[in-house]
Design a protein that fits this description.
The longest helix has 17 residues. 42% of the residues lie in helices and 0% in strands. It is mostly helical. The protein is flat. It has a domain of 59 residues. The mean pLDDT is 79.
Length: 119
């Protein structure tokens, strides 16, 4: 398989979110494309492409490397619970409920049946 076609197939899977097995036949064998993906990932091809892409974009648009921001929706704030308390939607949840008064913690799908009856 030619590398350009393999790369197009990988981008197709990553953009659409489809499973590897659902890859259209026009891209070739899904298992072969997946093997290339794993090999390229392990050998750092995608990291190198990302770095080259950033360097090229920096030349065109001059990225302000000294100032960057991140949206709070991208990562969890590890100290937020200490600062603001628990999430209001979690306050009403019953965390520790007593087990039912039966002998086992799980219940069968059929509560009871006669021995002679079929399941």
């Amino acid at each position: 398989m030619e590398p350009r076609r393999v790369f197009e197939a990988i981008v197709y899977v990553l953009r659409t979110g489809c499973q590897w097995k659902a890859l259209p036949k026009e891209y070739g064998s899904a298992s072969s494309v997946h093997k290339y993906f794993l090999y390229w990932k392990q050998s750092g091809v995608f990291v190198k492409m990302w770095r080259k892409g950033l360097a090229e974009y920096d030349e065109m648009e001059n990225i302000a490397w000294s100032w960057q921001s991140i949206d709070g929706a991208m990562v969890k704030a590890p100290l937020a619970l200490e600062a603001v308390g628990p999430n209001p939607t979690d306050r009403g949840k019953k965390r520790y409920q007593a087990q039912p008064a039966r002998r086992r913690s799980w219940n069968p799908a059929v509560i009871s049946r006669e021995r002679g009856a079929s399941a």
